[in-house]
């Protein structure tokens, strides 16, 4: 059992208990995989082989690289410049692949905890022949888009890194996901390098996880906003909740991938491949319908809020599902993450109202209503007053409907399970109108019944 009071970040007792529950669930999955013998050397090699170039492509994409996974593989394996792309993307892909290979080696044969020497080695591999490679910075830096100011002098950076290393080497018994999260956010807070801080921090997270027997995680470009926002919250007040939630989600997803790799060892099936292609087409239709719905809500609700002198902020999360997620949802199994869009309404004289829509598998009621057809559905969550996790299911506070879904292969045929338990069949326009009306009504409810005072 770990003690969050020993970290440089803090959580209240309630959130800490939720963290422990989530950790126990994750560790239970790892134990089951090992107990059943699924984690054979062949399975491990298969999983790492599938994820190797995706990990490089996604980490670099967060920093601006435009290379796809296939282009990244070509760049790393052949070392050739990809036509139409900045040659620096190829250089960064090769360097990161080399650094991540070294991370895997350090996890097997290195010290039991991460220290500054290991960190500098990873950074040196990442930056190659650039002058700052493998060196702590000595000059002041600014983080683009952040209000946080890192240590200003070389001496301040060294002091901060010494504290970082002391914590790391003094707490080897903490669970790997906790160490991964704390060391990651703390390192980005210090921002010890002139360049490569993000890539180094993400490589560090995987060093901690792989060393403890976990699969590596991949923070994808589509999750960039959630990732940056979670880091910002940790910078501003030492609030680790959002980042822990992200790391736990990514570990859950990595374990699912590892479980799928074990299944794939049974061989290729042409029929299953054809089904998967059809599922991919259905996923594209679902994503398009979801994006259109969110955009129409933004247009309609925004106009109404502006008339009241308020402001609407609606953030659409890019492609909340990948194909593996979609397959899991169609089979009635839960996925991690799945954020769809976030609505925040601020109207003078009323508390700020925030609602987060997320995607999970259809409820049993919806499943039965649609003649036992599985698939994704939209649900709603609100801020958790207990603090962790940051969001909790909205239930009766859901705007208009408890659950929304569209028929497979149709982006404009929506089914809503509304608050009284009945079902409605609506077009995208009709759903957008009802969601906008409900969200506005919640935002203008009597004072004291909103979400949080501004």
Question: What would your notes on this structure say?
Answer:
By secondary structure, the chain is an alpha+beta fold. It folds into two domains: 4-264, Fido-like domain (Fic-like fold); 270-443, no CATH class. Helices cover 54% and strands 11% of the residues. The chain contains 14 helices and eight strands. It has helices at residues 13-35, 41-62, 69-78, 87-109, 116-127, 154-170, 176-190, 197-211, 224-237, 241-264, 270-307, 323-330, 364-369, 428-443, and strands at 311-316, 339-346, 353-361, 376-383, 391-393, 401-406, 414-418, 423-426. A five-stranded antiparallel β-sheet has the order 1-2-3-4-5. A three-stranded antiparallel β-sheet has the order 6-7-8.
Concise overview:
By secondary structure, the chain is of the alpha+beta class.
Helix-strand blueprint:
Elements: H1 13-35, H2 41-62, H3 69-78, H4 87-109, H5 116-127, H6 154-170, H7 176-190, H8 197-211, H9 224-237, H10 241-264, H11 270-307, E1 311-316, H12 323-330, E2 339-346, E3 353-361, H13 364-369, E4 376-383, E5 391-393, E6 401-406, E7 414-418, E8 423-426, H14 428-443
Antiparallel strand pairs: 1-2, 2-3, 3-4, 4-5, 6-7, 7-8
Helix pairs in contact: 1-10, 2-3, 2-4, 2-10, 3-4, 4-5, 4-8, 5-8, 6-7, 7-8, 7-10, 9-10, 11-14
